[in-house]
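Limitations

Structures in this collection are predictions, not experimental determinations, and the ligand pose is part of the prediction. Treat each record accordingly. The example that follows, with zinc ion as the small molecule, is included so readers can see exactly what is and is not provided: the inputs are given verbatim, and the output is the predicted complex.
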Amino acid sequence: MPNDFLLRNVTIAGRSRDVFDIAIRDGIIRDIAPHITSDAPGEDAAGRLVVPGFVDSHIHLDKSCILDRCTIEQGTLQEAIAQVAAAKRGFSEGDVYARAARTLEKAILHGTTAMRTHVEVDARIGLTSFHAIQRLKNDYAWAIDLELCVFPQEGLINDPGTEEVLVKACEAGADLIGGCPYADSDRSGHINRIFDIAQRFDLDIDFHLDFDLDPSWTDMEEVCRQAGARRYGGRVTIGHVTKLSAMPPKEFAAWGRRLADAGVAVTVLPSTDLFLTGRDCDHNIPRGVTHAHRLSEHGVTCSLATNNVLNPFTPLGDCSLIRIANLYANVAQIGDTASLCSCLDMVTSGPAKLMNIAHYGVEIGHPADLVVLDCADQAAAVAEIVQPLFALKRGRRSFTRAAPILHRPQTIARPRLLRST
Ligand SMILES: [Zn+2]
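Predicted complex:
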């Protein structure tokens, strides 16, 4: 059978430094070898690095790009929730779709080929945002696999009518369900209700959890307990968990082991965590970013993700996961090659495992979801925020970025000639 596409002379992350050819047919990687003979059209990567498509395990497309309708005075989590709650009253399906599409396209152009987006549902917005993002999922399936995690950002137990909408979203095809216990006075009750609905619809769970810097209490115990009791290990993620960054090493290690044993994964969101936490300090401000690479040493599945873009939770961002990995490396004081490589893992294989994506990675028989980066090794990709040059989604090219060209001036006159006159 002839191949559809031949990607020539690539360095493959995690393999030897030799260059390989990758043959693709019907969207699947059919062969990986040093020299493949094929008449298929293709591209010579000239030794550049190929990685599996980036995976953003936590982003909010529905509330991105709303800075023009919000104010940021305190920069706190409470202010962000209140500002977005007010803006949300003006959301229509067309408005959500247009803003979300703008954000999604940026992510695609940065090499993201799979994404979990959280979608707010409650008694006021109903399923408006959910329907917009469902349409988006279908319209952009050629470039990215999008999964929708519906969740009650403004509370569940304290917000009458929201649970019914959450259930309706699950009936209407939500891919998974999220929770936000810090938004309710009965946090354990919130966690319990989310597990109940998840079990009823057989959905995975992704909580926003422990989003503060007070180490004196945590909701991790209740999440781990429920995951164990309901045999949900490997199906639960907790995002932020900034509280862990405020714990001394012994306590941090104990929670790392507990999370690993319970099969609860962690997504760290450096941009939002840096922006919103520590606002009660006026100097010597804590970083408030949990050390994902240290958690992973205890066996926790970890990812680094975008979270919010251009809204009161995070007024910054370009949807580049390479840049997020670099930001994290700066904050976590990472400089050695192995740890930089693990930062790259936490925007590729880590979130793929967290999202239970089957057949992920540059292997024969896997879907050809590939990104070619303008560098030769993984550590450089993170250290230098290297740009992706093009991506394939199931073997089809989804975008191309031209490599930059330096336009040196032509020599006006050579010094030797000047001396000879
Ligand atoms: Zn979030």
